[in-house]
Amino acid sequence: MKAVGLTRYLPLDDPDSLKDVDIAEPKPDACDLLVRVKAISVNPVDSKVRSTVKQELSTPKILGYDASGVVEAIGRDVTLFKPGDEVFYAGDITRPGTNSELHVVDERIVGKKPAKLDFAETAALPLTSLTAWELMFERMRIDASGADRGKTLLILSGAGGVGSMAIQFAKLAGLVVIATASRPETQQWCKSLGADYVIDHRKSIKDELKSAGFERVNYIVNLVDTDGYWQLMGELIAPQGHVGCIVEPKKDVYVGNPLKDASIGIHWESMFTRSRHKTPDMIEQHKTLDRVADLVDNGKIKTSLHKTLSPINAANLREAHKLIESGKSIGKIALKNW
User: Fold this and answer.
1) What is the per-residue pLDDT across 191-220, written as a single tens digit (0 to 9) for each?
2) First to last CA, the chain
3) Which CATH superfamily includes the segment(s) 128-268?
C-alpha cells in the first residue's frame, strides 16, 4: 500500500527527506480498528519526530498523528465501532503513523467523525482538540460547563492549531480570552474564533495586557515557548492561578518564588500520555473526540483547517512540513486523497 516515510533526517529541500514508499498492509490487533485513511493533517510533532531520525533506518519510519477515514476491519475485541464507520483520531506515537493508506489504531482513542465536516476538515481536529481539552479542562481544572465564567485566560500563540481550539473551548466555558498574535492575518484569525482581545507578542506582552485593562490573569496557556515566557508568566499570573504548558523546556526552570508564594498551579500536557502509557482511562480520548464531534455538528465550534493540499504524497507533505517549520502557519494544514 502507499505511504510516506523517511529513513533518516535530511533537510526538506532534499526529496529523500520524506519519500513515497510501498509498505505491507497492517493487521488489527484485538482492540484495533483498521482504517482506510481519507485525510491527514500535520502538526509540529511530525517535524520534531522527523528530526530525531539521525541514523539510517532499514525500514521507513511512517509519521503522522492526525487522520480521518473509514473503518475497514475491526479486531476481535472491538465494541465501539464497526466496518463502514467514519472516524477521526490522533493516533499513538509509539506505533506507525497515519501517513499511509491503511492504518491501525486502538479504538479507545478514536471518535466518530463529525457529520457536518468533510474528511480534510475533520483531520484538522483530533490532536489539537485533545491537547487543548485535556490541558484546560483536565490538567488545569477549568470547569467546562461554565462555573469559571468571567475568569481570564491568556493564550500564548493563539493562531496555531492548539491555540485555535483553545480559544473556542475557552469561550464555550465562558472565559474572557486574550490571545497573542502578531500579524494582521493571525490576529484576525484569533478574533474570528472568538478571542475577546488579541495582543501583539512582538511588543511587551505585559504592557499590551495592561492596555487591554488587565494587570494579571487567572489562567495562562503557553503553547509556544516555555523557557522564553517562564519569568513573564510568573509576573502575569494571578495568585492561586494556573499555568499550562505543552512545550518541554530546553533548560531547567525555577519553580520557586514568585510562583510558590502565590500558590500557582503548574500543569503539563502531552496528548500521547494515555496511549504511550496505556493508562486505565484511555477511553477518555474516545469520549472527548465524540464530544468534539457533537460540538461541531451542533454549530458550537468549527474546524481549524486553514490550508488543504492534495493528493497525500511526499512532495505535499514536505511542503506542509516547511510551512509548519516556518512558524508562520495559521490553524491547521491537511492533506486529502491518495
Assistant:
1) 999 999 999 999 999 999 999 999 999 999
2) 10
3) NAD(P)-binding Rossmann-like Domain (3.40.50.720)
